[in-house]
Amino acid sequence: MRQAAVLSGLGSWLPPQVVTNDRLARQLDTSDEWIRRRTGIGQRHIAGPGIATSDLAIEAGRRALKSAATDRADCVIVATTTPDHPCPATAPMVAAKLGLGTVPAFDVAAVCAGFLYAGAVAEGLIAAGTVRTALVIGADTFSSILDPEDRTTRCVFGDGAGAAYLRAGSPEEPGALGPFTLGSDGTGADMIMVGGGGSRQPLRAENIARSDPYFRMQGKAVFRHAVERMSTAISTAIEGANWTLDDVEVFVTHQANLRIMQAVASHLGVPPERFPVHLDRVGNTAAASVPLTLVDAASAGTLRAGQRTVLEVLTEVVDGVTVGLSARWSGRGETSVAAVDRVG
């Protein structure tokens, strides 16, 4: 029988520094009311000086291992757009710091969709028998690539990390990951982009003035695409799992914007209460968004063992990638929830 990847542990970490809307209002032309009305966000956690993406990933990974009652993993995959360095990858450093030795470790760069892409890769490795366990981490310090004068991005993004421990098991087990729905649309690459620093616009002395090192976003265009693509991805993933919308008890979506989540729920005809909200306290944490929401929902009791759950995200940078995943949440009862911390 083909091995399935079974979710058996979760962990999260948020840097301790909290930036409220009121604090941003003192720095930018904005207000708490403006931010909440447009995004639903009240605050976000920001990595302070000396805190890198690997630091967040290591702590989230450690807690996921503890949640799964193990100290071993056969591979480590870190989904991030903000690695510690362009080279080498962040994942091998995370694996070493976690005491996992020389296991296979690599990064996945798919921005907000990164965690689910990394999960799909881990599922494939487990199904092929290459590994039996995998630690999948979504971690980003988006504050490091935001223009300090751009309120449209500074108000939205926060830093954090979330991790999931996957093990080989039966496709019939609670917690077994179901079908993934993956796709991309490279024609929308300019909607969300960091223009400078790549091979197209290298950061060199002769052209540094023309190379924009900051994250830029066309908010209105992203909103329109997000509602359509997220709704389609959810429907496709549910169809692939032979479920109906009524079968799904929890929809864990990328926490980009509360209005997007509400529009998707309305488009699908699903009560918004079935969409856990976490961004009001942490903002859009990019690759960490989905696992952080899973941890928060499990800790709050919204997500319980045996529930049918759909994870979904529309990436917000580069390719307009749509990702859907259906799964029956497994958890380990009260032990699992107690082992993961909501906030650093």
TrEMBL record:
Keyword Lyase: no
CDD domains referenced in this protein's UniProt entry, alphabetically: KAS_III
Domain Beta-ketoacyl-[acyl-carrier-protein] synthase III C-terminal span(s) in chain numbering: 239-312
Keywords: Acyltransferase, Cytoplasm, Fatty acid biosynthesis, Fatty acid metabolism, Lipid biosynthesis, Lipid metabolism, Transferase
Family annotation (InterPro entries): ACP_syn_III_C, ACP_syn_III_N, FabH, Thiolase-like
UniProt keyword Transferase present: yes
Beta-ketoacyl-[acyl-carrier-protein] synthase III N-terminal domain mapped to chain residues: 106-186
UniProt cross-references to NCBIfam families, sorted A to Z: fabH, PRK09352.1
Family, similarity comment: Belongs to the thiolase-like superfamily. FabH family.
Protein name: Ketoacyl-ACP synthase III
Species this chain originates from: Streptomyces flavofungini
